[in-house]
């Protein structure tokens, strides 16, 4: 059985607002959006301070392994903060949406540009600066 993701109430609220504004033409992004919405509907939603440290959330810095190799130091951010060259990955991108809510050690099957791929989450760290930016953004969105 597929386990449900864990997400903070604050991140959940931010994501629902972000997804309500999002529109995609690309079929892979549409599939990822649909899968992310399904994951959010089934998610275990907890208070901000109850999210375990090894869960990927907005602001987390993540090391992963994909079929094409290792990617280290990726930070999960809102779409307007994304910058692939700086390893800032949008939470609604195919890769970002695959990681959200899963924990260190999980292997996630997710649709990416070259088909469904297995992504192993090797390491999860929280980022103080990203968490602060996320907090400022959530206040601005309220």
Provide a descriptive summary of the structure in words.
The protein has 142 residues and is of the alpha/beta class. It contains 4 helices and 7 strands. Strands 5-4-3-7-6 form a 5-stranded mixed beta sheet. It starts with 5 loop residues before the first strand and ends with a helix.
Record the SSE blueprint.
Layout (H helix, E strand, L loop, with lengths): L5 E3 H13 L5 H16 L1 E3 L13 E7 L2 E9 L10 E3 L3 H6 L7 E6 L2 E12 L1 H14 L1
Taken in chain order, the helices and strands follow as EHHEEEEHEEH
Number of strands: 7
Q: Characterize the largest beta sheet: strand count, sense, and whether it forms a barrel.
A: 5 strands, mixed
For the record, give the distance between the C-alpha atoms at the N and C termini, rounded to a whole number.
36 Å
Q: What is the approximate shape?
A: globular
**Main sheet: strand order:** 5-4-3-7-6
Low-confidence stretches: 128-142
Q: What count of helical segments does DSSP give?
A: 4
Average pLDDT score: 83
Helix content: 25-40%
Strand content: 25-35%
User: How large, in whole angstroms, is the Cα Rg?
Assistant: 14 Å
Structural class: alpha/beta
